[in-house]
Design a protein that fits this description.
This protein is mainly alpha-helical. The chain contains twelve helices and no strands. Helix 3 runs parallel beside helix 8, helix 4 packs across helix 9 and helix 5 packs across helix 7. It is globular.
């Protein structure tokens, strides 16, 4: 049976991982700051669905095949990198396009926002405030990151006693990770909600999207170049 000390040690590790600013933080803050609370919670649920899948697969030993197979790992890695660069690049392109439209027009704001790239919609624009859309985005972002699988392969077995049933204990530990992440997400969404009025101004929206797009694209490039 897993010990209380093991759970506490695992909680400390995943707690530090959760608090470290990264892609998940950027996605949740940006989505919630624009007032898209349903989509923001969809992103949270999608990310944590991915975490549960990785934890379950690691408990079954499936993710060990991912880290052992160079082809499988690179396939997931390149897929995730392409998705992140596409989504981040779409946000950046949309902000530059809106800036160009604003400089040419003093009226007719519908032309500035009437056309939207697929990547901008995927990142959560005004027309994309849906729970399902956010869930899909969060789940894809998490599941296309092979480093999550590598993390669970490296860490999870250390906290499961020899001879114990791996799947129930692995899911239990993944549940601890999910619980901490949801609590942290609540704090992030509450913080973003406080700044919502300021960040919904057109100029602030552009800066927010540029920062978020840069962060997302940079993570994609880092994932593509990583070992």
């Amino acid at each position: 049976m897993i010990t209380l000390n093991a759970i506490e040690s695992f909680t400390l590790i995943v707690g530090l991982l959760t608090l470290t600013p990264g892609l998940d933080t950027a996605l949740i803050l940006r989505t919630a700051a624009l007032g898209h609370r349903r989509r923001a919670w969809g992103v949270v649920l999608g990310i944590q669905s991915g975490t549960l899948v990785w934890g379950t697969l690691a408990s079954l030993g499936v993710t060990a095949l991912l880290t052992a197979s160079h082809l499988a790992y690179n396939t997931v890695r390149w897929g995730g990198a392409a998705y992140l660069v596409w989504m981040g690049g779409g946000l950046l392109w949309a902000t530059w396009r809106r800036s160009a439209n604003d400089s040419r027009q003093t009226a007719g704001a519908g032309d500035a926002t009437g056309t939207r790239t697929a990547a901008e919609t995927e990142a959560g624009g005004a027309a994309g405030d849906t729970l399902l859309g956010g869930w899909r985005q969060g789940a894809m972002t998490n599941l296309l990151n092979p480093k999550m699988g590598a993390f669970y392969v490296a860490v999870l077995p250390q906290f499961i006693p020899t001879g114990a049933s791996h799947v129930p204990l692995g899911v239990l530990l993944a549940g601890v990770h999910i619980l901490l992440a949801v609590v942290w997400s609540c704090a992030l969404i509450a913080f973003a909600h406080m700044l919502r009025d300021r960040l919904q101004r057109p100029s602030a929206r552009r800066y927010l999207d540029r920062i978020t797009g840069t962060v997302i694209a940079a993570f994609g490039i880092r994932l593509a170049l990583g070992q």
